[in-house]
Design a protein that fits this description.
mainly alpha; 73 residues
């Protein structure tokens, strides 16, 4: 696969998930960021970002509920 073909293909789900997680942690590299802007669709990143945020909030909520339950509160 040539470099030109690699630049034309859309991002895979795995690449988008890695980008969303790296962006959430604030460790996204400049190379990956430019790849995302050139090959990715904004709507895909928005959807994945919203889903990631919802899952994150639900996990934190569940952990707090579990700790409070185990503490007898």
């Amino acid at each position: 696969m040539s470099e030109q073909d690699d630049n034309d293909r859309p991002l895979t789900l795995r690449e988008m998930l890695q980008s969303v997680l790296a962006a959430a942690l604030g460790v996204q590299s400049g190379k990956n960021r430019s790849r995302d802007f050139s090959r990715g669709k904004p709507s895909h990143f928005i959807i994945l970002g919203v889903v990631f945020t919802l899952v994150f909030v639900l996990v934190i909520f569940s952990v707090v509920k579990l700790v409070l339950h185990l503490a007898g509160v």
